Amino acid sequence: MRQHLIMGNWKLNGTKASVEALVEGLKAPVAAAANVEVAVCAPVIFLGQVEQLTAGSALKYGSQDADVHTSGAFTGENSPVMLKEFGCKYALVGHSERRTLHAETDAVVAAKFVAIQAADLVPVLCIGETLEQFEANQTNAVVEAQLKAVIDVAGIEALAKSVIAYEPVWAIGTGKTATPEIAQAVHAHIRAYLAGFNADVAAKVQVLYGGSMNAANAADLLAQADIDGGLIGGASLKVADFTAIIEAAAK
């Protein structure tokens, strides 16, 4: 039985005060949902604060990206080794905003995946299609290609020590959400595709839904057989909304 994982992605949001209020506000609901793992991915500048605030709590955390290099002349980047030193468990890789705004290719994403895992962090591999690809019925082909790029470099067994987040790009921050049936169909396809390489890995890996999950739709999405949690954007910035999603997962 795969444990549910509810992960917040704060994106480029937060102040010292709001981070403290958010983390402190999540401690009780996280403690109450012992059967669910809860994590937040903070802007890297707040990771030291998050490390201190989460001490002694069940709340895990990670980064929103990591560089492919561990050290060197790479101004502005953050090494996965540095992230590990600050207590991160997770690192997002291949988020749609990194792929589009920073032109990260499947090859770059695969290299980062390997570097993240080499630092003993858990990569959260984000995959998903654009609106144009969705309307052209290319969803399955897109997610297969994005997965295959990582499998070719890291091997299928590496995915057993990772998390996959399916994020339909057309449903991120747009207010649109894939219906539970659409989301489940893609999640099931992802698992079936992985099973073609290794059935044990396919059965074990957590596949999260990352397309505008919120307090209102979380229960229906999380009830689907192949949806193992959520990668939450805007709703993760509000204690009440994020708590409602955690409670839906706990049920």
TrEMBL record:
One of its GO terms (cellular component) is cytosol. It comes from Tolumonas osonensis. Homodimer. It catalyses: D-glyceraldehyde 3-phosphate = dihydroxyacetone phosphate. Substrate binds at residues 9-11, 173, 212, 233-234. NCBIfam families: tim (TIGR00419). Pathway: Carbohydrate metabolism; erythritol degradation; Carbohydrate biosynthesis; gluconeogenesis; Carbohydrate degradation; glycolysis; D-glyceraldehyde 3-phosphate from glycerone phosphate: step 1/1. This is Triosephosphate isomerase. Its EC number is 5.3.1.1. One of its GO terms (molecular function) is triose-phosphate isomerase activity. The gene is tpiA. Gene3D superfamilies: Aldolase class I. Involved in the gluconeogenesis. Catalyzes stereospecifically the conversion of dihydroxyacetone phosphate (DHAP) to D-glyceraldehyde-3-phosphate (G3P). Belongs to the triosephosphate isomerase family.
